[in-house]
Fold this sequence. Notes:
226 residues, alpha/beta, two-stranded antiparallel ribbon, 7 helices
Amino acid sequence: MKAMVLAAGRGERMGELTRNCPKPLLKIARKPLLQHHLERLVAAGFDDVVVNAFYRAEDIEDFLRGWHDDRMQVHLVTEPELLETGGGIYNALTLLGEQPFLAINGDVWTDYPLASIVQKSREFASTNDLARLILVGNPDHNTGGDFALTAEGRVQNQGADLLTFSGLSVLAPALFRDCAPGRFPLGPVLRQAIERDQVSGEFYAGYWVDVGTPERLQRVEQNLKE
Length: 226
């Protein structure tokens, strides 16, 4: 199973921290976020990973040139413009192949067991679903949530108790069959598939942080120390 780490954004909310450094290369426990992701993917058995880049792409390219693991092949896709999440994945589909793949936002921190994704993707591939979303409890910066989850594990656009999309998902290439090259977000594409009842999901109660601000970055660092 292949994986994609979404690492193209600048991270405007990081302020001065990302003036001279792309957000995926900000460090936690002396390692760039991107390195943590790659090491966790290797440990989970992933051996083929795509990383996209736009803001300070040359810095990410330099990092990947210096970091390597014989168990993993990493492909860098440099975007000519910021394509957002949906457009960035669409732009990398030729490298991701024809089977469902793992997509993970480069600015999230979680202890979700990535190895379990592989088995779940086999079950996912035997259905008509086009996506499987990992949902988490609503953080302070997203109290309204994003999607609902039924007891049967189906994701819905509306519901009494909305949960937050973690930025971790399994996606089938066919999810993007009606899309065109260019800039577009992933959310509307997912919502269209949800309307067709083609999206499953699960709730994860473990550790998860959207590392989108200096305060959250510091919080993860402190939690690791503790």
